[in-house]
Amino acid sequence: MKRFLDILISAFCLLLFSPLMLIIYLAIKIGGGPAIYKQERIGKGGRPFYIYKFRSMVIDAEKEGAELLQKDNDPRLTKIGKFLREHHLDELPQLWNVFIGDMAFVGYRPERQYYIDQILQHNPRYVELYQIRPGVTSYATLHNGYTDTMEKMLRRLDLDLYYLEHQSLWFDFKILYKTFFSIVSGRIFLLLPCLLLTNNICAQETAHTSTSVTYDLTAETAVGTGSFTAYQLVTNRYHSLATRPNTANLRGAITIEQPLGKGFILSGAVDAIGSVHADHKVYLQQCYANLRWKNFFIEAGSKELRPVLRNQRLSVGHFVKGTNAKPIPQVHIGTTDFWTVPYTKGWLQIHFDGGYGKPMDNSYREDAFRKAPSVNSGYTTGAYYHQKHLYLRSNPEKRIFVTVGIEHVAQFGGTHYAYTGAWGEGQEMVAKSKPSDLKAFWKVILPVGDKNYYENDAMEDWVYGNHLGSMTYQIGWNITKDHQIQAYLDNPFEDGSGIRKGNGWDGLWGLEYSNKSEGRQWVRGAVVEYFQSTNQSGPLHYDSGDYPEPIRSQITDLVTGVDDYYYHLFYGGYSHYGMTPGIALITSPIYNQDGYTQYRDNRVKAWHVAVEGELTDRLSYLVKGSYREGWGTYRVPLAEKHHSFDAMLEGNYRLGDWNFSATYAFDKGNIYGDCSTFNFKISYHGKIF
Amino acid sequence: MERYFKLLAICCWLLAVSSSFISCQEGHEAGDLFGQWRLTESKYISFSGSIVAFRHITNFRPREVFGNFQHQGDSLFIQCSSIKKDKLDTLMVEDELGMKPFTNIRVKIDAVDSDRLILSKDGKLWSFKKW
Asked: Which of B45, B52, B98 shows the shortest CA–CA distance to B77?
């Protein structure tokens, strides 16, 4: 029961405090160095585990000499660290320790082996504590405070042993209650939100609003032959299903929505996936808090964002803000849907979103590089992420309506590690960092830079950061009230080249039919798309500024090209955990069987068709297929042209809150090889209250 | 007012689409030669704007040599330049590709279309495939 409550409360607290944790994280990061501090402690059964905290001390505070005890007025505390310590905010990451089972909310404070060895010399009863999980707070902490002497440690042990002998849920509750008030007392910082929360709760009662708590459970398996789970099953599903063959997963999500009155709604979710035969065994897929008011929102955390214009089930998706990779945690603001601009009588609607985030795949990138150093030249960690889009649309209720807009993503900051010299020739790993201060956050909003960078010895390239995006031109025709056709072009750009349309026929050219009629419809929607990325802005790139004399004077013309969609010299690939966040027809690096971490084939031509509809009131279907050919990249063309035909047929049976799905998908060609996969999925949507 | 916004929206869209459809390919001044041409699995020649690039790829790592080029009738003139004044660049173009001298190559364009490019000089033939 105690463990169940720990999971439930820690999940809720992680959700509730995620915006605050993100702010603290960024505040520490901007000051430089790692934001999270981890230290090995000894937990239940005497097993070591890592305890997580926000770093409150200067880097390498314990590097020199013996392990040091921490004091409240420790000179090694940073300014932010001192504030965090005073408000116990540095302990927030321990919610994760509780969630994954290393710790409980109430127990005994876990100690380092170094101190345990000393305590054991005075009192061997310490080992009795190994029966239970260590806690975020403890009975001893209430009465003993921070321990900085052996005397206090032994006194703490006595109190911990007292707790061990008298533990109960009621005792835990009293400790939690007292801990909370000991933290809150005298602290305006924490009292204020409490008062606001109380005020809100009162307001809600008078407004007769209520909290909604729902949950979703999914069990899924994909079995078959071949080197991968078939492409269409994995694609555009936020990398929730593994690319490896014969995989299975269990997924659980809890979503909370709380109206706050006056149109404000606070919501959030925690969504975790546990998989076998997968790229990630356990992954927190979503964890976010969202505050919305009418058509506008502010959100912090990691969320599977739906595509704005492209059909999520049918289309190959957006060029950069797609649905193929795991979501990137970010803080962003925007509109929940198209918002009608006042005073335009409904003729102009806009949809925007913009924010900053941080990819989670640093360890993945480093590990991937170290697994295959002979084929990789380097890797980048610690990069930041900026995204935005703006779409303008005329009234979609009219017979003809148009949409234009732009989406833009940038990678910036971070450190690039690369070996000097060729592989195996006594190389040395060299690190180069890009600035990630507040100025950098401002600079990436537009892809601009120092065009005389080579003369000014600037640290940056011509353009700061890796910029890519696409511009959309779309026209819609309401044939009747229920039938609509839209034609569109998403024109990609990379580092500015495509913005001036210098990439020929490159882009996603599409036609979408949608049927909004009520009742069963044989065809609910259909999409035909052509995607090309072969031209880029030409087969070679030459800028005399990049080179020394005499070539700089001998070849003076500027020829831009070799955009290398999704590639950047410093940041490597625009990918998250090896998957492209954009159009998956450009094969993601995760599929490179030799461990190469970059895109090997970004010059492709592809055709894609998809249809969905209903066979009965409860049974629906989805059929889609893509054929593509690839020539590699301009810098390294493929020796043999790539080609693949990937198709799937899915049947969905809905029974109340239950959904059953069965899919068969296959790949034929030399990209994924010949793969054949059967997929079964059962999901349930429930409401707690 | 309503008509104004309707007109504005449609004009914006038409402007955007027309600018897209009257699209030009960067570097298309190279004419029919524009693009990347493959001689063998590892040897390529690319034309864009007024610049030519020779690429030799070994172990996924390209070696690149740039040059200026002029295209007059069926004659092609190329003046290569080495980035680091490296002798290997000259060897790559003159010995491996057989086009010489490095700084003043003159070849005849026997045929060029959307799929192939055939160059010749003194009975030697280079047959490229668009890649």
From this structure: B52
